[in-house]
Design brief:
Layout (H helix, E strand, L loop, with lengths): L3 E3 L2 H5 L7 E6 L5 H14 L4 E6 L19 H11 L3 E3 L3 H4 L19 H4 L3 H16 L3 E5 L3 H13 L5 E5 L19 H33 L3 H10 L3 H4 L2 H6 L5 H15 L6 E10 L4 E2 L6 E11 L2 E11 L7
Parallel strand pairs: 1-4, 2-3, 2-5, 3-4, 5-6
Antiparallel strand pairs: 7-8, 7-9, 9-10
Length: 333
């Protein structure tokens, strides 16, 4: 397969379409995470469909002092990765092609969800992101678009925009791709020195600690509920090494599913230790939120949740998250 480079929407619209068009939106500097998105798009689009990868560094979603100027631009390498992953075309428009009248006066507002977490740290970021996603959806006219779960708040906002504004496109989420040591793949990882990378591993380690604590809680409650008598329940809990819970096994069995506070505490402990590393981790936020609106969940919450973290290591800002399910025996997706 030879991947075609397209610079204008007119070139893209002139292409003959047989099956469904699947679009993967990127800001370039492609890596294995992007390649996974493209391969997933290729599989879902099928042999008769068309996979288009967009490469556009959107100036609207970079705030003052952020890394727009130094954001990596590696189009030749991006073309190769896209081609190997199965893309039919790479659409790499200029800023003038996307914003022909200069910065748009009419933009998409992300609303209250866009002011939380990432939005609080980066004011206006999500308005710029949604504006360019809306424009690229119009320019590429896809049937289905693919986004990574690593940018969980972005994904949630895109889904909300598509639903609220009646975009005729299906949004598909693709799980986060990680390196062997657990670090979530990101174009910004290339900024990290060897020492900074070691510190950065605290982000995923914190998420895994929270996930493991949640899994242990759910397993404990499952064991407790299997034993009908209080005394027998205590003995059963003692047998699996949960002495504190065994002291009040009946209360454990009757408690609400999961314990968000314990999940947060387990993750926080890892992050607190990383503050003392060299170089130190500078935490922006740790949050356990409802993915429908990105507000913190209560201790009696049941359903899907997202454990999210953001921090700086040196001059590089990184984000990561894991999905969790409260109220069932499954701990993580």
């Amino acid at each position: 397969m030879t991947t075609t480079l397209l610079r204008t929407a007119a070139e893209l619209h002139a292409r003959t379409r047989a099956g469904r068009r699947a679009v993967v939106m990127t800001m370039g500097a492609l890596h294995e995470g992007h390649a996974t998105l493209v391969r997933t798009a290729r599989e879902i689009a099928g042999p008769d469909g068309e996979v288009v990868v967009t490469v556009f560094v959107n100036p609207l979603q970079f705030g003052v002092g952020e890394d727009l100027d130094r954001y990596p631009r590696t189009l030749d390498a991006d073309l190769k990765i896209a081609e190997e992953a199965g893309a039919d075309a790479v659409f790499a428009p200029s800023v003038d092609e996307v914003y022909p009248g200069g910065e748009p006066q009419v933009r998409i507002s992300a609303g209250p969800m866009g002011e939380r977490l990432e939005g609080a740290t980066r004011p206006g970021h999500f308005d710029g992101m949604l504006t360019v996603v809306a424009k690229l959806l119009h320019l590429t006219r896809p049937d289905v678009a693919f986004f990574g779960q690593k940018d969980a708040q972005q994904l949630a906002l895109i889904r909300r925009m598509v639903r609220d504004l009646n975009f005729g496109v299906e949004i598909v989420a693709v799980p986060t791709v990680r390196e062997a040591d657990g670090l979530a793949l990101s174009s910004r990882n290339r900024y990290l020195s060897a020492r900074e990378r070691r510190t950065a591993l605290a982000l995923s380690a914190a998420l895994f600690a929270g996930r493991d604590r949640h899994a242990a809680q759910e397993a404990l409650r499952a064991r407790a509920r299997e034993v009908p008598a209080t005394q027998a329940r205590a003995e059963a809990l003692s047998a699996i090494g949960e002495s504190r819970a065994a002291a009040d096994a009946h209360a454990v069995a009757k408690a609400a599913p999961g314990n968000p506070a314990a999940v947060r505490a387990a993750a926080r402990q890892v992050l607190d230790e990383a503050v003392r590393l060299d170089p130190p981790l500078v935490l922006d936020y740790l949050a356990l939120v409802d993915p429908s609106d990105f507000t913190e969940i209560a201790d009696d919450f049941t359903g899907e949740a997202v454990l999210a973290v953001a921090a700086r290591v040196g001059t590089t800002r990184l984000i990561d998250n894991l999905p969790l399910t409260f109220g069932t025996l499954g701990a993580a997706s």
